Amino acid sequence: MAIIVRGATCSLGEAVVDKLLSMDVDVIAIEESHKLRNETLLKYSQAKLLSDGEGYSISFDGSEADMAIGRDLIVHDLIPTRNDRWMPDEFKNWSTGQEYHGKSRYWLSVIDAANAIAHLANTGNQYSGLQLCGRREWSSEDTQSEFEMLWERTNQGQSGKFTAHTLFGHEIAGMEAKPIQDEASTRPDLQPVHNALLEITGDGWRPLITLRTAIMTLIAGLID
């Protein structure tokens, strides 16, 4: 079964196309950038990247589809790989030296989100109202601490002049014990997407990319 991906010009859409092709699933997408980005994979894979055809459809641009991102599957707190429409205000401000204090977030790497979307779409099933975000809550203060440390480390890496403060003694922010509280009122309901993925993969919804890795990938995209 081929999968049509519409409006995949954002980092999440591109990651979904990449994931589907890596799963040996044929993809129908009109953007030439997908061919350039996956040139090596397509050379040695059985998967095809086509410009037209029929199949199950995913849309990232609000167009009608079997799975419309933002309607059938709502993605929260995504960390993209560059400054695109998914760019959170926190990172947009912090990367330019601006102050910003936001709400707590359940950060989600674009890679984990793309993996989930690709597996859901590959079933050919219809879904409605699924919510997707990370499982762990991060305060704005802890997120800023992680971002600023990695931003400073990256900038010093470009000059080759590291300070001991940047290289050492940075434990992951937000690791202190917190009182147990009811998350139902703040975190989107992940049970439906967990149940759906449990049937498909046997693992359910288990995001694997750490916050530091997701932030470093974003920083690389901002500096590139």
Across the major sheet, the strand order is: 3-2-1-4-5
Strand proportion = 5-15%
Q: How many discrete domains?
A: 1
Distance between the termini: 36 Å
User: In which range does the helix fraction lie?
Assistant: 40-55%
**What is the chain-wise order of helices and strands?**
EHEHHEEEEEHEHEHHHH
The geometry reads as globular
CATH class: Alpha Beta
Secondary-structure class: alpha/beta
CATH architecture: 3-Layer(aba) Sandwich
Record field, number of beta strands: 9
List keywords for this structure.
224 residues; alpha/beta; Rossmann fold; five-stranded parallel sheet; 9 helices; globular
What do these coordinates show?
The chain has 224 residues and is an alpha/beta fold. It has a single domain, classed as NAD(P)-binding Rossmann-like Domain (Rossmann fold). 40% of the residues lie in helices and 11% in strands. It is built from nine helices and nine strands. The protein has helices at residues 11-22, 33-37, 39-44, 89-94, 110-122, 140-159, 164-167, 191-201, 211-223, and strands at 3-6, 27-28, 49-50, 56-59, 67-68, 73-75, 78-79, 108-109, 130-132. The protein has a five-stranded parallel beta sheet, with helices on one face. A two-stranded parallel ribbon has the order 6-9. Helix 4 (89-94) links the parallel strand 7 (78-79) and strand 8 (108-109). Helix 1 packs across helix 5 (110-122) and helix 6 (140-159) crosses helix 9. It is globular and about 50 Å long. The two termini are 36 Å apart. The model has no long low-confidence stretch (mean pLDDT 90).
